[in-house]
Amino acid sequence: MERLPASIVRIQATIDYIDDHLDDALDIQELAAQTEMSFWHFLRVFRATVGETVKDYIRRRRLTRAAYELLETQQNIIDIALGAGFETHEAFTRAFRSQFGASPREFRAAGKQPQLPRGIPHITTEYLAHMHSGLTTTPEFVDSPARRLVGVKTEFSVAPEAFDLIELGTEAWRTFEPLITRIPVRANSLAGLCSDIVAADERSIQGYVMACVEVTEFSGLPEGVVALMRPPCREARFRHRGAGQTWEYTLQYIFGAWLPDSHFAVDDQPAYFTFDATHSPFSEAPEIDYWLALR
């Protein structure tokens, strides 16, 4: 029997725990602690494996149970709403309609059985195709020297379910791209994106994205750019090919399968991506190298 990656086992245990405790006030930070992952890493691996955020998964499971209760019991709708964790009938109705395409009253009257969703690994035919042609699944290991990076740094604070690296990276690149030709003493022809999470909890993820280039020295920099030194480290380089929407598949593989099943841990360094400076990093068919710092 094929051995499941360690991450799948941990996330499946979390899913089973959630399903057994839908009546409880589930604390996402406590769920993360049970997996022995950092909070941010847990959020990233869960989303990569299941295909949605922890908060969205919990809500979907509660709404699905509520759908069965509408069909199989005579409970008042407001009581079912409260049991699903909603404080008002209106909030419950909006969420229920969003998931099932009908109000709770309409759903009960129609008597249609819902499809019971389970949090299985988010494996699709598109994901499998990307594994074969859009990603180097075996990384190259590199002992990288210190990198001097200069660029435009954009800070963010977003809800976990709204975190979108592609959107944040695209905005940062658009701001920085007009300034590239004004950067002196560049170390190479590549451009990069550097991103880090500085704080994360159930309410928000805070961090920054920096569109940048590597330079040989911090001198003669134009106004409006900042400097960042990335220390020397051992890195795994993954090469991503394909349109921007497939970037999620690359991260899904790295953090949902390769990393948890490897002998490495992620070093406490910003994420770093490099690409041809003549193209947007999230254009139709870019080639992006993701440098994962290891320890």
UniProtKB/TrEMBL annotation:
SMART domains: AraC_E_bind, HTH_ARAC. Gene3D superfamilies: Homeodomain-like (1.10.10.60), Regulatory factor, effector binding domain (3.20.80.10). Keywords: DNA-binding, Transcription, Transcription regulation. The keyword Transcription applies. Signal peptide: none annotated. Residues 12-110 form the HTH araC/xylS-type domain. One of its GO terms (molecular function) is DNA-binding transcription factor activity. This is AraC family transcriptional regulator. It comes from Niveibacterium umoris. The lineage of its organism: Bacteria, Pseudomonadati, Pseudomonadota, Betaproteobacteria, Rhodocyclales.
